[in-house]
Amino acid sequence: MAVVGVDFGTLHSKIGVARHRGIDIIVNEVSNRATPSLVAFGPKQRSIGESAKTQETSNFRNTIGCLKRLIGRTFQDPEIQIEKKYLNATLVDVSGTVGAEVSYLGEKQTFSATQLVAMYLGKLRDITSNELKTAVTDLVIAVPGWYTDVQRRALLDAASVAGLNALRLINDSTAVALGYGITKSDLPEPENPRNVMFVDVGHSSMSVTIIAFAKGQLTVKATAYDRHLGGRDVDYALLQYFAAEFKTKYKIDVLSSPKAMFRLAVGCERLKKVLSANSEAPLNVESIMNDIDASSKLSRETYEGLLTDVLSRVGTPIKQALAESGLTLEQIDSVELVGGTTRIPAVRAQIQDAVGGKPLSTTLNQDEAIARGATFACAMLSPTFRVRDFAVHDIAHYPIKVQWEPTPSDPDDDTELVVFPRGNGIPSTKVLTFYRKDSFDIEARYVNPTELPGGINPWIARFSAKSVPPDSKGDLTCVKLKTRLNLHGILSFEAAYTEEVEEKEEVPMEVDGADAAPPKKKKVVKKKEVPFVTGTSSLDNSIVENLKEQEAQMHAADKLVMDTEDRKNALEEYVYDTRGKLDDRYAAYVQAAEKVTLLGLLQDAEDWLYSEEGEDATKSAYVGKLDSLKVVGDPIVLRYRQYEDRPRSISELRASL
Ligand code: ATP
Ligand code: MG
Fold first, then answer.
1. Which atom of ligand 1 is nearest to the CA of 275?
2. Distance 176 CA to ligand 1 centre (A)
3. pLDDT tens sequence across 70-95
4. I need a surface site. Which of 337, 369, 574, 613 has the fewest CB within 10 A?
5. CA distances from 476 to 415, 437, 442, 479 (A)
6. Ligand with the closest atom to the CA of 367
7. How does residue 512 score in pLDDT terms, banded at 50, 70 and 90?
8. What is the spatial distance between Cα 121 and Cα 71, in angstroms, rounded to a whole number?
């Protein structure tokens, strides 16, 4: 069974697979190790990943990125307004969640973010199964540690819609730490752990995690984030700067034209990368708008001036994480950098400043460390792989409480309890006790709504006990409720039961020749299940099944379009190839009349290919045409091959030496 780990990035995603030699990051259909996190729609088909990137400039309105930022959000979420800065597609409300309105197969259609992510995960699945030559179902997906219950559940739903089974959603920095720790053979004893700070600045978000490593284990000590700090903020600052410059220089308002803005943004990202290694960089954008070729340049100094706001925020999460860990800077053994934006020298300088000038380490593969770690996590959960034992002690970022209505008999009693405080281990199970007579409801919520991303609802889940069995003594019944923060970082109500203690007399065994021991009383705990239902933000099974079917249909339709294109190309190639060879390689094996017939057929086929009908025909039409050409062409090819393959005479062989 395939072992797969995915780093689902805002800009790009990477896929790791476990092989017997170790973990490899695989390449996509155009041999790139990172696949653009984009889904696009066209008149005939969807384009996902690289093909979406290729057509982005001409079809930006129907191309959707930032998928990771959209999933699990409502359309009203204030952070969706922020995402709009970076998106050209139209966002809309789709059944209470955010989605996009696109033009697909010639009509307006809407898809929820969950569906869009499912499409994208389906593409990653295809890339992987193409590489491994086997079906892919199980995988581990890395997510930001700041993802809440609703975002995690939406991503799991998306995986199901894509026919995938996410064995674990792992916090991305924890994945990096796992990949770092599991390969180290020199880790200290637990009393004196090695403390490492991981700093990841990606395209949209920054995270800082402090981990204590010891022999065979890692423990997350502290986490802190800036959910709105990444390379795209740098790109945006550059875009505003050049748009202002071009207003005076060329008298054009780039910001008034999405297309021009898009072209400039592409140029800005390129310039940004050049500036990471040079003190000055040029900017050239051909026909940006009104047939103007815009050009400019930027010095490192001016550039850094534009980034003042971004740079001034880099130190904050580092300081927060440090404070929360309770460690001093001296106790941090190393600072490891991850994520594309840590390549910017000024960002590095800020990080270094915040860690008191400590050296920064780039021993990890900045772009691939998360995917590698997620793949290790998958291997650890897979029955087919043996990985060295390594315990991962992750923690919850947001505290969770349960709430209930006061009971009439005890109106002044508490009505809530923090079950999983911040820093609680993941996974973790807690058994809560309630004294009740009738059916009752419990709700799980995040404790601090204000610390959640954007407008995310603090509500997590509801538990409703249907009926509570009466207590044998007529008192309130003691109901135990098993609550779990699972491996995905998701809360679930797992079981509800009553316990009754019965005393049983043990019948002593008669042993020959010995006196029978006096009868003993033994306590037996009898568990009785309490029937209950739960509600969460996950999609109902029936909806998932429905979306899965829709997805499978779109996937099959895309495949048909690609196969049709492939057959059309095959026909075209046959026409040109055969025509050329008739005068050359096949010349000695074709009769004059036969040649005339075949050339005529080839000409007909060519004319048809460029006619309105042949331009856009069905797969079977292209296959049929090619087959009919081959009826005449194949005997010629056969004669040629027979001659080529015939045993050579000794003199011929000598001559060829
Ligand atoms: P996130 O982790 O926020 O979801 P991501 O994982 O897609 O995003 P990364 O792949 O870590 O992001 O980093 C991509 C960002 O790094 C982009 O903004 C890209 O422009 C930037 N980047 C990549 N190389 C360089 C470079 N040499 N100089 C400056 N920025 C760079
Ligand atoms: Mg990332």
1. 28
2. 16
3. 999 999 999 999 999 999 999 999 99
4. 613
5. 17, 5, 17, 9
6. 1
7. low
8. 13
Q: How far is the CA of 231 from the centre of ligand 1 (A)?
A: 6
Say whether pTM exceeds 0.90: yes
Residue whose CA is at the smallest distance from ligand 1 atom 16: 340
DSSP lists the bridge partners of residue 197 as: 210, 335
Shortest-distance atom of ligand 1 to CA 341: 16
- Evaluate: CB of 317 within 6 angstroms of ligand 1: no
Q: pLDDT, tens digit, for every residue of 259-310?
A: 899 899 999 999 999 999 999 999 999 999 999 999 999 999 999 999 999 9
Tens digits of residue pLDDT in 521-564: 778 888 899 999 999 999 999 999 999 999 999 999 999 999 99
Ligand 1 pocket test target in 146, 341, 344, 348 with most atoms within 8 Å of CB:
341
For ligand 1, the distance from its centroid to the CA atom of residue 202, given in whole angstroms, is 5
Ligand 1 close to Cβ of residue 269 (< 6 A): yes
**DSSP code per residue over 193-226:** PEEEEEEEE-SS-EEEEEEEEETTEEEEEEEEEE
pLDDT at 502: 77
9 lines ligand 1 (CB under 6 A): yes
CATH topology of domain 400-508+517-539: Substrate Binding Domain Of DNAk; Chain A, domain 1 (2.60.34)
Task: Tell me the pLDDT band of 518, cut-offs 50, 70 and 90.
Answer: low
Fold of 4-228+314-381: Nucleotidyltransferase; domain 5 (3.30.420)
Question: Which residue has a Cα nearest atom 29 of ligand 1?
Answer: 273
Residues 16 and 3: their CA atoms lie apart, in Å, by 8
Are the C-beta atoms of 316 and 226 separated by less than 8 Å? yes
543-645 maps to CATH 2.60.40.1090: no
